[in-house]
UniProtKB/TrEMBL annotation:
Keywords: Cytoplasm, GTP-binding, Hydrolase, Nucleotide-binding, Ribonucleoprotein, RNA-binding, Signal recognition particle. This is Signal recognition particle protein. The gene is ffh. It catalyses: GTP + H2O = GDP + phosphate + H(+). It comes from Thermosynechococcus vestitus (strain NIES-2133 / IAM M-273 / BP-1). Belongs to the GTP-binding SRP family. SRP54 subfamily. GTP binds at residues 107-114, 189-193, 247-250.
Length: 295
């Protein structure tokens, strides 16, 4: 397990060897290696620093267990801390009675938000939950078309009102429609911008205020790397999220964005996107990603 990290710690662990306690002095080098590994995995610098501090505190004073190599013990401490920071188990989606459960999708343009909306609907259907998708991106007719196409593809109805009605109104009417149809969950896709801007945040906040969703999911492109932390902070402070979906983990990123998202917002990553197809959505398991981040 963690061959890459173990290899990195090769020289560091010489200082751990023969010790009966892990001390400040003998883990300096090892901590530096972990920090390097995190940065290479695209974890935000500040997030990595905070994490290292957490590990330092756990490690110092730990008794070296007889028969366990101290470097292996140290790796276990790092791994456990990472899993814990990312949330110990898979966090399920809200499911309320009476229906509908309302899910608001947020995120920058191009992150995979619209695709994730359809993926989520398909996932819920497999759990026996019916959905209605709502298209509120009135700035890009192509985005509405995209959602309609995806809806058709997976056999899920899409509610839209064109581009002349305000997104808040479309969202409200979408929820009313969901009640009328008796569907279990309504998922509201929203407009994204290429960068965070005040107008987008205000609009999202207004939609949130208007429909009082049970989940506000931030869609984050795992390739965003270091920026994932700032992005999450902005959305969490200005809109408030209850979880995230990390997309494009089928790419070659090691997924450090997950740690940033979790540490900055305190909210769990609920799903990961692992491809362009609508089936390519998986529940997020912190232990699997911890292994990937540590290499
Ligand atoms: P939006 O602007 O945030 O709604 O983004 P889209 O849903 O339109 O997705 C942007 C692009 O990313 C499209 O080409 C998608 O096929 C692609 N995409 C979305 N999710 C994933 C994923 O998990 N993996 C990969 N490789 N591509 C994805």
């Amino acid at each position: 397990m963690f061959d890459a990290l173990a290899e990195r710690l090769e020289s560091a662990w010489k200082t751990l060897r023969g010790q009966d306690k892990i001390t400040e002095n003998n883990i300096q080098e090892a901590l530096r290696e972990v920090r390097r590994a995190l940065l290479e995995a695209d974890v935000n610098l500040q997030v990595a620093k905070d994490f290292i501090e957490n590990v330092r505190q756990r490690a110092i004073g730990a008794e070296v267990i007889a028969g366990v190599r101290p470097d292996q013990q140290f790796i276990k401490i790092v791994y456990d801390a990472l899993v814990e920071v990312m949330g110990e188990s898979h966090s399920p989606l809200a499911h309320v009675e009476p229906p509908p459960t309302i899910i608001l999708m947020a995120g920058l343009q191009g992150t995979g938000k619209t695709t994730a909306t359809a993926k989520l609907a398909l996932h819920l259907r497999k759990e026996g939950r019916s959905t209605l998708l709502v298209a509120t991106d009135v700035y890009r007719p192509a985005a509405i078309d995209q959602l309609m196409t995806l809806g058709k593809q997976i056999g899920v109805p899409v509610f839209e009102m064109g581009t002349e009605v305000s997104p808040v109104e479309i969202a409200r009417q979408g929820v009313a429609k969901a009640k009328e149809l008796g569907v279990d969950t309504v998922i509201i896709d929203t407009a994204g911008r290429l960068q965070i801007d005040a107008e987008m945040m205000a609009e999202l906040a207004a939609i949130k205020e208007g429909v009082q969703p049970h989940e506000t999911l931030l869609v984050v492109d795992a390739m965003t790397g270091q920026e994932a932390a700032n992005l999450t902070r902005a959305f969490h402070e200005q809109v408030g999220i209850t979880g995230a979906i990390l997309t494009k983990l089928d790419g070659d990123t090691r997924g450090g964005a997950a740690l940033s998202v979790r540490q900055v917002s305190g909210q769990p990553i609920k799903f990961i996107g692992v491809g362009e197809k609508v089936e390519a959505l998986q529940p997020f398991y912190p232990d699997r990603l911890a292994s990937r981040i540590l290499g």
